[in-house]
Design goal:
Length: 394
């Protein structure tokens, strides 16, 4: 669905559920892809994501009271969830997807922001849920922006990103890093964000893909972050860090160079934890090199590092699986492909590839054919554009 169609559908539903369109405003928050730097953000490492032009829309209206009404065209369509602000305590299964919306209110209250006004909203996204393009972080940031607007809260986009991560960690129960919310809240058209997750210092890096397309390949394998092995990876890295701390003074794996890691790796007791830490350290280093390559206009080197990243996520971090491997490994064999890798948490979701314009058609056909033959259903393959962060749409 494009922007105009979404707007029309939202207006129809809004009028039907909430009476009239008077005072209703359209908000948007993007999704994201991560170009490189995967599973480094909860290890104090670097990430290099960008916001995309697909995302989540809300048609919303401020309420004079403290009621929150949420309706989605994607999830439990047609059902209006109702909650009073002071009823929001903790994650509840029956709140379904609105746990994200409620959690953001709780995050704001927990952190000293005053939220007195609720809202009526209808929400619709054009990033597939569970696709690894951060539909949940997009929703969190979107709700953060709506709450800010309707409660005149003095809070920056960076802080909204942090509150989104707080919600994931404390309300939803996923020990995720800050990458997704940061990429979404701070997105900038045609730029990626080079973020040091240890300090939250960041730079915008222009991404000039003239002559190329950034392709998204969706495995169409559904995955829920909280029922995935994500928290297990976080735990494995934490254990590896604990072992390393017995022989060296560090606070995060992201502080280590690969040489330093290799010297101390034997102090990590469990061989599985050792592999996980190895990925975190080398991936962090690759991310630095990839940004350098991009600054030097060396797209070939950037692509090579993307491929290496996938291999490390496949062999050492073990978060790819047959679907993502089929996509990336097939892409590597095709003409005009600069690089390809999984993006996001893994375990399903999406892979990305940088592909020469003239090769895109053949690429799409071949990837679709090979994947369908091997996996038994088709992937979705399309070009993405790097877009801006969240906001109100006039
Ligand atoms: C998910 C998390 C992020 C990050 C990635 C992996 O998207 O939400 O914080 O850890 O996985 O890089």
């Amino acid at each position: 669905m494009n922007h105009q169609e979404i707007k029309k559908n939202l207006e129809k539903e809004f009028e039907e559920k909430y009476g009239s369109l008077e005072g209703a405003e359209l908000f948007f928050a993007p999704g994201r892809v991560n170009l490189i730097g995967e599973h480094t953000d909860y290890n104090g490492g670097r990430v290099f994501p960008c916001a995309i032009t697909f995302g989540t829309y809300a048609l919303a209206r401020k309420r004079p009271d403290d009621l929150i009404h949420c309706d989605s065209l994607n999830m439990d369509p047609g059902k209006v969830f109702e909650k009073r602000i002071d009823e929001i305590v903790e994650f509840e299964e029956e709140d379904s997807w609105t746990n994200y919306a409620n959690g953001m209110v709780k995050a704001m209250l927990d952190n000293g922001y005053e939220v007195a006004h609720g809202y009526d909203a209808v929400i619709c996204g054009n990033i597939p849920v569970g696709s690894g393009l951060s539909s949940s972080a997009s929703l969190l940031v979107l709700i953060g922006c709506i709450l800010r607007e309707y409660n005149s809260i003095d809070v920056t986009n960076e802080r909204i990103a942090w509150l989104g991560q707080y919600t994931e960690n404390h309300y939803i129960g996923v020990q995720s890093g800050i990458m997704d919310e940061f990429a979404i809240a701070m997105g900038k058209k045609d730029h990626a964000i080079y973020l040091d997750t240890a300090t939250l210092k960041f730079e915008y890096a222009p991404i000039d893909l003239t002559g190329y397309k950034l392709m998204i390949m969706n495995t169409n394998k559904k995955r829920g972050l909280h029922d995935s092995k994500y928290n297990e990876r976080v735990r494995e890295c934490t254990q590896a860090l604990h072992d390393l701390q017995k022989v060296m003074k560090i606070t995060a794996l992201g502080e280590l160079s690969s040489e330093e890691f290799e010297k101390a790796a034997d102090s990590i007791q469990d061989p599985v934890n050792r592999k996980r830490a190895k990925h975190a350290v080398y991936e962090n280093e690759r991310t630095k090199l990839a940004v350098e390559a991009l600054n030097a206009h060396d797209l070939a080197e950037f692509g090579r590092l993307m491929n290496e990243s996938h291999i490390s996520l496949r062999d050492d971090y073990e978060v790819t699986g047959m679907e993502l491997d089929t996509l990336a490994e097939t892409a590597w064999t095709l003409d005009g492909v600069v690089g390809a890798r999984m993006t996001g948490a893994g375990f399903g979701g999406c892979a990305i590839a940088i592909v020469k314009d003239e090769a895109v058609e053949a690429f799409t056909k071949k990837i679709t054919a090979v994947y369908t033959e091997k996996i038994g259903y088709a992937p979705s393959v399309y070009a993405a554009e790097i877009g801006d962060g969240p906001g109100r749409i006039a």
